[in-house]
Design goal:
3-stranded parallel beta sheet, 87 residues, 39% helix, globular, 20% strand
Length: 87
Protein backbone atom coordinates (compact mmCIF):
# COMPACT_ATOMS: atom_id res chain seq x y z
CA UNK A 1 0.00 0.00 0.00
CA UNK A 2 1.22 3.52 -0.83
CA UNK A 3 0.19 6.54 1.21
CA UNK A 4 -0.77 10.11 0.44
CA UNK A 5 0.45 12.46 3.16
CA UNK A 6 -0.98 15.98 3.43
CA UNK A 7 0.86 18.37 5.74
CA UNK A 8 -0.86 21.56 6.82
CA UNK A 9 -0.40 24.14 9.57
CA UNK A 10 0.22 25.93 11.69
CA UNK A 11 2.96 26.76 9.24
CA UNK A 12 5.07 23.67 8.49
CA UNK A 13 7.94 25.65 6.94
CA UNK A 14 8.42 27.56 10.21
CA UNK A 15 9.92 24.39 11.69
CA UNK A 16 13.65 24.44 10.92
CA UNK A 17 13.60 20.63 10.68
CA UNK A 18 10.75 20.43 8.17
CA UNK A 19 12.82 20.30 4.96
CA UNK A 20 15.36 17.86 6.46
CA UNK A 21 12.39 15.72 7.57
CA UNK A 22 10.97 15.72 4.02
CA UNK A 23 14.37 14.67 2.66
CA UNK A 24 14.62 11.90 5.26
CA UNK A 25 11.08 10.73 4.51
CA UNK A 26 11.81 10.45 0.77
CA UNK A 27 15.16 8.73 1.35
CA UNK A 28 13.77 6.16 3.77
CA UNK A 29 10.13 5.59 2.83
CA UNK A 30 9.72 6.63 -0.80
CA UNK A 31 8.49 3.18 -1.81
CA UNK A 32 5.50 3.65 0.51
CA UNK A 33 4.64 7.18 -0.59
CA UNK A 34 2.13 7.91 -3.31
CA UNK A 35 2.17 11.69 -2.75
CA UNK A 36 3.31 14.28 -0.26
CA UNK A 37 1.24 17.47 -0.25
CA UNK A 38 2.14 20.60 1.73
CA UNK A 39 -0.03 23.62 2.49
CA UNK A 40 1.90 26.76 3.38
CA UNK A 41 1.21 30.45 3.83
CA UNK A 42 4.04 31.41 1.46
CA UNK A 43 6.22 33.01 4.13
CA UNK A 44 9.37 31.03 3.29
CA UNK A 45 11.80 32.06 0.55
CA UNK A 46 11.69 31.14 -3.13
CA UNK A 47 14.87 29.12 -2.60
CA UNK A 48 13.25 27.20 0.26
CA UNK A 49 10.20 26.33 -1.84
CA UNK A 50 12.40 25.33 -4.78
CA UNK A 51 14.26 22.90 -2.50
CA UNK A 52 11.01 21.68 -0.98
CA UNK A 53 9.56 20.91 -4.40
CA UNK A 54 12.37 18.42 -4.95
CA UNK A 55 10.91 16.40 -2.06
CA UNK A 56 7.15 16.90 -2.27
CA UNK A 57 4.61 16.43 -5.03
CA UNK A 58 2.49 19.51 -4.46
CA UNK A 59 2.63 22.80 -2.61
CA UNK A 60 -0.62 24.61 -1.96
CA UNK A 61 -0.44 28.24 -0.87
CA UNK A 62 -3.06 29.54 1.53
CA UNK A 63 -3.66 33.26 1.49
CA UNK A 64 -4.51 35.00 4.74
CA UNK A 65 -5.48 38.42 3.46
CA UNK A 66 -5.47 40.03 6.90
CA UNK A 67 -1.76 39.21 7.35
CA UNK A 68 -0.26 39.18 3.88
CA UNK A 69 1.79 41.55 1.79
CA UNK A 70 -0.06 40.73 -1.42
CA UNK A 71 2.64 42.01 -3.77
CA UNK A 72 5.38 39.97 -2.05
CA UNK A 73 3.17 36.87 -1.85
CA UNK A 74 2.13 36.85 -5.51
CA UNK A 75 5.62 37.79 -6.72
CA UNK A 76 7.03 34.76 -4.91
CA UNK A 77 4.31 32.42 -6.21
CA UNK A 78 4.78 33.65 -9.79
CA UNK A 79 8.58 33.36 -9.55
CA UNK A 80 8.21 29.79 -8.32
CA UNK A 81 5.83 28.99 -11.18
CA UNK A 82 8.28 30.49 -13.68
CA UNK A 83 11.08 28.38 -12.24
CA UNK A 84 8.97 25.23 -12.53
CA UNK A 85 7.33 26.00 -15.86
CA UNK A 86 9.83 28.16 -17.76
CA UNK A 87 7.81 28.28 -20.99
Amino acid sequence: MRYKIAITGGEPTANKNFLPFMIWLRQNYNEYLHQILVTTNGSASLRYYSNLLEQVDNISFSLHSEHVDEKKFFSMVLALKKKLLPN
